Amino acid sequence: MPLAAERQERILAAVRKHGMVRLADLVQQLGVTPVTVRRDVTLLADRGLVQRVHGGIALPHRTQAAPTREGAPGAFGPMATGALVGMVVPSVEYYWPPVIQGAHTAVAAARGRLVMRASRWDDPAEDRRQVNALLERGVQALLVAPTTAGDAAMELLRWLRSLTVPVVLVERCPPQELATLALDAVMTAHALGAGLAVRHLVTLGHHRIALITTRQSPTSKALRAGWQDAVDVLKLESREGLDIEVPSYGAPGWAEAYTDVLKRSRDLGVRALLVHSDREAIGLIEQGRELGISVPHDLAIVTYDDEIGAASDPPLTAVRPQKHRLGVLAAELVLAKVAEVGEQWPVHRLELWPNVVVRESCGTEPQPETL
């Protein structure tokens, strides 16, 4: 039997790793009686190193002053003020800065503080590590954009659901295998955005529209579903050979791959492309010039994301997700949940529609820019 100090260190290591640990699991892991585990847990709790939760223990979250309900109401009701909110995102580049800024705006308006950490794409273990670091920091709520594909990701989502602080997923939703997992989520309706792009091109007279995506894009699956649905519903010409994956702009072999796409499109009579994302659309325009293909006269392009579409030559018609607004709403939702802790909240799954910003790359008159 391990000594008391060794047992307690192992208990702390387990709770640091998992965020929350059941007492029954500790009994099994340590090979001691329930009475011994309860005694160790009591000593750790008395020292402020863990806190008791139903059926187990968790990291303490008392390093910050308790938030209050006072302050301006948000979209979901009264928001907690003075809360420390943690945020884990897969990147701090390209798509994510406006989302982070939106969350920061909402938290700051409630006199709280946002603490952000970057994880990595497709790395559930790193997601968990960063969440644990924020829990140790004492956050009272979490905004998380975790990996959602694979067995390890599903275990991560189950763990997030078990935490004792409110959690809202950002631009993520549990997969179908966990359809009833009670996690709140605020996300962009990416599939619908792809459908909006297809419909815009159809109104301009196009009936054969190719989809161009990058191989590592986490948004590709939703865009493909939306593109396929729109092609079917609008009874457009066959989509066979029109769903094309390419390397990211600037990656090895990108120029040759983009040239092949343009040649294939010309051979198939395709005169309209939906491209994810802006960099790839700009790369296609560049390679098109080398082939004598002019945008928009020979080829119409709609890009998805609209990070730098307005600066392209010609400026790109784009589907623009409401990234800043998404960050605001995710933060307001989690702050409302902090204020109403203990209440029986319904699970929120909120989708924001992106909008189409018309510029010159489709051969139509540009609309006034709005943010």
Task: Please tell me about this protein's structure.
Helix content is 40%, strand content 18%. By secondary structure, the chain is an alpha/beta fold. A six-stranded parallel beta sheet has the order 7-6-8-9-10-16, sandwiched between helices. The chain has a six-stranded mixed beta sheet with strand order 12-11-13-14-15-17, with helices on both faces. Helix 4 (96-109) packs parallel to helix 11 (323-339) and helix 9 packs across helix 10. The longest helix has 17 residues, at 323-339. It starts with a helix and ends in a 14-residue tail after the last strand.
Ends: how far apart? Answer: 64 Å
Strand order of the largest sheet: 7-6-8-9-10-16
Determine the fraction of residues in helical runs and give it as a percent range.
40-55%
Please tally the helical runs, counting DSSP H or I stretches of 4 or more residues.
11
Q: Main β-sheet, in a few words?
A: 6 strands, parallel
Number of separate strands: 17
- Series of H and E elements: HEHHEEEEEHEHEHEEHEHEHEHEEHEE
Measured on Cα atoms, how large is the radius of gyration?
Answer: 25 Å
Structural class: alpha/beta
Shape: elongated
- β-strand percent reads 15-25%
* Unreliable runs: none
What does the average pLDDT come to? 90
SSE topology:
Elements lengths: L3 H15 L1 E3 H8 L3 H13 L4 E3 L2 E3 L14 E2 L2 E2 L5 E6 L6 H14 L3 E6 L5 H14 L3 E4 L6 H12 L4 E4 L13 E5 L1 H14 L5 E6 L5 H14 L9 E4 L7 H15 L3 E4 L2 H14 L8 E5 L12 E4 L2 H17 L9 E4 L2 E3 L14
Parallel strand pairs: 6-7, 6-8, 8-9, 9-10, 10-16, 11-12, 11-13, 13-14, 14-15
Antiparallel strand pairs: 1-3, 2-3, 4-5, 15-17
